[in-house]
Amino acid sequence: MKKENNLSNPNKKKSVTAVKGKGCPYMKKCGGCQYIDIPYEKQLEQKQAEMKKLLGKYGKVEPIIGMKDPYRYRHKVHAVFGYEKGGAVSGIYEEKSHRIVKIDRCMIEHEKADEIILSVRNLLKSFKIRTYDEKTDMGLLKHVVVRVSKETGQIMVILVLRSPILPSKNNFAKALVKLHPEISTIVINVNEKRTTMVLGKRDIVLYGKGYIEDSLCGVRFRLSPQSFYQINPVQTEILYGKAMEMAKLTGKETVVDAYCGIGTIALVAAQKAKRVVGVELNSEAVKDARENAKRNQASNASFVCQDAGKWMVDMASRGETADVVFMDPPRSGSDEAFLSSVCKLSPSRIVYISCGPDTLARDLGYLTRHGYRVEKLQPVDMFPMTSHCEVVAGLCKVKK
Ligand code: SAH
């Protein structure tokens, strides 16, 4: 908090060098921001060195793209709710434990999202809503997730409950919206299981449409509670911009977007390609992707709900081809079935977007042994203050 006062001090030059992470009161317990006590410029230097060490053998690692303002960038905020000393608490799990560190404001989270979470906590008592107690498996409210759209300002609030019944739910929604009229939709998510997963399978719309809209790179997207969506919109536009540069689309290409989520990369690429197919395992995300194609009149984009590896194998065995393959797998990376099928499809370019540089290094090893060369490696700092780093790698087929 102190640090933020420093930032707004007009006598201080507001540059990244002046930004030091000190001042987070939760730092010792929370553990979410591994680099918060390192000046931002040093964080970037450290990530650059790590990426060079991991990926340098595949080619030159371009200078990492950092943020001008590396705070409050998280547009999706998750708070775990619990029960302590007779009262409701909310925050984040202490590192490697299930004790809750009580957090009111976090330096990397969107301010409005934090305010809404606090309001939920303050309303619980008057509505007699009990928070969930992991030890006894009793109580109702487990988590609150808030998503804020940077472009439209729309806000989605997800209340994760142990059972579908929220007492006086309409009055609760009314009271929350009265405090924060900018909330566009409130969804109840039912998660009955004792699990580390935040969301359960069932969503019940309590207020509004049940989804929000945002736009990225000039394309408008709808996103539902269950769909993946990047949390840092400023850096996502930069990341996708770099991915498009590496794809070198001319308008004639057949493109695959594997692990496509709600179709973000596919629909940006569809503006510059002949045809795009997106593949995604999560059916809610695929519904969003199809809806998003309509919304943007992208009649050249279609979406398949399937395991990306399996779909690629089938596509290759049918003898189909693709010119460019974008792939953006989860942190665990891709698998050999997928990679070997990509090589069979033999696209002239592969653009690999990765939030797990270790698995990227492993998968680049496979691709470079099977006919591809890394042309460009671009780290983008999507997660300032943490040790995580996103990298986009552009590969091209080696001419025989
Ligand atoms: N490209 C998207 C989403 C990337 S996140 C974006 O930038 O927004 C990775 C996505 O892969 C998630 O949506 C997840 O549901 C999906 N996924 C995970 N395993 C998968 C698999 N085996 N096959 C297809 N999609 C998968």
Structural class: alpha/beta
Number of domains as seen in the coordinates: 2
Distinct ligand kinds? S-adenosyl-L-homocysteine
The percentage of residues in β strands lies in: 25-35%
Number of strands: 16
Radius of gyration (Å): 22 Å
**In what order do the strands lie side by side in the largest sheet?**
3-2-1-4-5-6-7
Estimate percent helicity.
Answer: 25-40%
Taking the alpha carbons of the first and last residues, their distance comes to: 58 Å
Shape: globular
Low-confidence stretches: 1-21
Output the CATH class name of the largest domain.
Answer: Alpha Beta
> According to CATH, what is the topology of the largest domain?
Rossmann fold
Global mean pLDDT: 92
Describe the biggest sheet? 7 strands, mixed
Tell me the CATH architecture of the largest domain: 3-Layer(aba) Sandwich
CATH superfamily of the largest domain: Vaccinia Virus protein VP39
Topology as H/E string? HHHEEEHEEHEEEEHEHEHEHEHEHEE
Tally of helical runs = 11
Describe this structure as you would to a colleague:
With 400 residues, the chain is an alpha/beta fold. The protein has two domains: 1-73 and 232-400, Rossmann fold (3-Layer(aba) Sandwich), CATH 3.40.50; 76-213, OB fold (Dihydrolipoamide Acetyltransferase, E2P) (Beta Barrel), CATH 2.40.50. 30% of the residues lie in helices and 25% in strands. The protein is built from eleven helices and 16 strands. It has helices spanning 2-7, 27-30, 40-55, 111-123, 169-179, 233-247, 264-270, 283-295, 308-317, 336-345, 357-369; strands at residues 76-84, 87-93, 100-102, 141-148, 155-161, 183-190, 202-207, 212-216, 219-223, 254-258, 275-280, 301-305, 324-327, 349-354, 372-380, 390-397. The strands form three sheets. A seven-stranded mixed β-sheet has the order 3-2-1-4-5-6-7, covered by helices on one side. α4 packs across α5. The longest helix has 16 residues, at 40-55. The model is unreliable at 1-21 (pLDDT under 50). Bound molecules: S-adenosyl-L-homocysteine (SAH). S-adenosyl-L-homocysteine is lined by residues 228-230, 259-261, 264-265, 279-282, 285, 307-308, 328-330.
